Fold this protein.
Amino acid sequence: MVATATLLPGFADPVFDAQAVFRAAMDALARPGTIQQIGCPLTPPKGLCAASAALMLTLCDYDTPVYLSAALAQGVVPGWLGFHAGAKITSDKSTCAFAFFEKGSTLPAFGHFSQGTQDYPDRSTTIILEVASLEGGARLSLSGPGINGATEIAPLGLPATFLDQWRVNRALFPRGIDLILTCSNRLIGLPRTVNIKALEG
Amino acid sequence: MYVAVKGGETAIANAHQLLADRRRGNRELPAIAIEQIVEQLALSVDRVMAEASLYDRSLAALAVKQSRGDLIEAIFLLRAYRTTLPRFGTSEPIDTARMQIERRVSATYKDLPGGQLLGPTFDYTHRLLDPDLLHDTPVEAPAGRTDADEPVMRVSEILAGEGLIEADGELPADHVAGDLTREPMEFPMTRDLRLQALARGDEGFLLALGYSTQRGYGRTHPFVGEIRIGLVDIELDVPELGFAVSLGEILVTECQMVNQFKGSAKASPQFTRGYGLVFGQSERKAMSMSLVDRALRTQEFGEDVVAPAQDEEFVISHCDNVQATGFVEHLKLPHYVDFQAELDLVRRMRAKHAQPHDHQEAAE
Amino acid sequence: MIEIAGTHPSDPLDAKRALALLARADHQTLKQVWDGLPAKPQFRKIRGPEVGLVMVKGRIGGGGDPFNLGEASVCRASIETDAGVIGHSYRLGTDKAAAELGAVLHALWQSDDHRQHIESTLLSPVEKRAEADARTRSQQTAATKVDFFTMVRGED
């Protein structure tokens, strides 16, 4: 029995909060590079920032296998996710619908995750990666659908091989993973369609 | 091809209002209550639940009321409603051997453990309209009998004792039950998916197909091994508790059809089986389902596919009445532009047809 | 008969029984027990009450491999009392208020102070009623049992 365990509540208003978060995630992916904010109050379980936790409750359900980083998998997150969203945790990166990584964790190569198929490119993994900050890092130039010309982001704490991996991912189109960067209650969407280049200085 | 046409808004609003009026009917009569539909039109409610593939008596009754008794429309409403709900999980498989039995009959054994329990059946009624029902004539409480408490064993177990019948359906060890509400259909499909499709299939369609096998279009030599109707417990495995929780009971109808099988190079002669399991009380549907299930196993037994009921793609693709009604009824939607194109084509063909024959020859 | 002294929330069998009976208690019964509580606990909702679906499985041939038969509507709720006890409720149908009442009463059943009261006013009566209903149904069905008798034909 869980009578003695402490279970944190999920969204205060499950329907409207999830809709608002979904809207933020959709806008983030439709307008890559913009910083979106999660407005609803939510106490995240230990290991997750508010934005990652809100995305977890909004996007994951009984039909979406979820991969968690080693640290997250050992903590309270699996119980919280199972309780509120009914999602099953998988250790198989190649079949997961969503993958979550906390700040500073080692991100496996994108190629290990589900890339979708030519017939069903939507079946690829969406990775939610918490970073140290969405600003103040090396400047990156973004271009592609949803961006008028070019835009800039400067997240802090991306893996060293990020740009090389992204180039490979971009070339798989229409297959490939989508990425959401989170920090605190904010997020940036990087769909597979976006071109990312390093900027000098 | 479709073109957006505006201008019907008022007409549509008024049509909805008219529909609501006709649904309510004569205001001097009391409105029918959901509970009345649940209690007194229980078998309509059962059919809606079975074919909507959603067990909820009150919602099915509401759908029957809203659809003015049009059961396919009610099924459509309930199907639409279920799409708005999250899935909490999957139940433990229901155990029909432990059913609280309401009816149980066998056509293969007269004296079998548990006996023939007729239950609330129409079978021995004379099919004469009953004028008593024109009024609210009081109905007697049913008789009870306290001396019969024999366990009700499955007929398949009796035959299995002698090795005369195939085992219950088994799939490869690593097989996970497919779910056609989650994955697109692909043919050929496994028996578990076919049974899911048949369980929500149209009763009339399955009845006609089952009948066709009896009339010679893919004979299966069927006997009703057993029909049982009753309540089964639904248990949901709850991870946060670490055990399965009982949610309550649902009414189901099960049919075990026993079919002759002459044997093949690989298998010795024995009885094979067709299986039917349906939400609610509906033995017509469960029997039809079991006939069609057996017919669809034709290839598994090395028999030739010669009849519609044995053609998996034909049966499964056409058994869903919500899909069928959607496609048939879409024909009444505006096809103005398509039709203009057809009209033009027929006019040109006629013009060409009317040209003097020699003229055409000269041109060649 | 129920051995009240033996029931214990940490025993899975007892917990299973309590949740099953809460699922079978109708709205009115739950409300009556709630209204009759001498002191009502404060609680906060941690999940739901919410309506969803459970996919009901059958078995091919009755005892073979599982297949998906169809879904059933289910309502569930989880609450935490001020005393820090978490209560759950899962029941067929869409009655959210009943699910929430069930979860609160489940929490109370887990606390030593209230278990006896919940047992005697709710669980035990619901269990007896369910058993009586099942018995009546089974006797009514039994009355429709065919008692075959064979006419004697010819000699030997």
Observations:
- Chain A is about 25% helix and 20% strand.
